[in-house]
Amino acid sequence: MDAFKRAVTSADFWLRVIYTLLLALAWQVTELLLIAITLLQLGFRLFTGEAKPRLIGFGNSLSQYAWQIGRYVTFVSDQKPWPFMEWPDSLAQWQPVAPTTQEPEPVAPEVK
User: Fold this and answer.
1) Distance in angstroms (rounded) separating the CA atoms of residues 4 and 8
2) How far apart are CA 46 and CA 89, in angstroms?
3) N or C: which end of the chain has fewer CB within 10 A?
């Protein structure tokens, strides 16, 4: 119950809620843009035989932006995405995170 009271009275908690709601809106716009890019690229590929390189770069950076939003709103990361940091580079590559293989340290029972 103390954790609940601390969260409700914490300015950091409410700021995170506001950022999460704003980024949820950004997610929706990003999703629509990704759909539009997909349809455009399919059209270019159908009629010209190749995808547009500029759209490939924008699609790459936009999908990484969506990834950054997802990491922030699910508490994987505390780093807020654009406009709080730079826009992802169109040539950037994904950087998978290796799973942790270490066992957590055992916690000694509290003596009362």
Assistant:
1) 6
2) 27
3) C
- The tokens for 31 are 């999703």
User: What's the CA gap between 57 and 1, in Å, rounded?
Assistant: 48
What's the pLDDT score for residue 38?
Answer: 97
pLDDT digits (tens, 9 = 90+) for 57-77: 999 999 999 999 999 999 999
Q: Structure tokens of 8?
A: 């409700």
Write out pLDDT tens, residues 97-109.
666 555 555 555 5
- In sequence order, the 6+-apart residues with CB closer than 8 A to the CB of 91 are 57, 60
pLDDT beyond 70 at 17: yes
Q: What angle do CA 48, 54, 55 make, to 5 degrees?
A: 75
| Amino acid, single-letter form, for residue 90 | S
User: Residue 30 is which amino acid?
Assistant: T
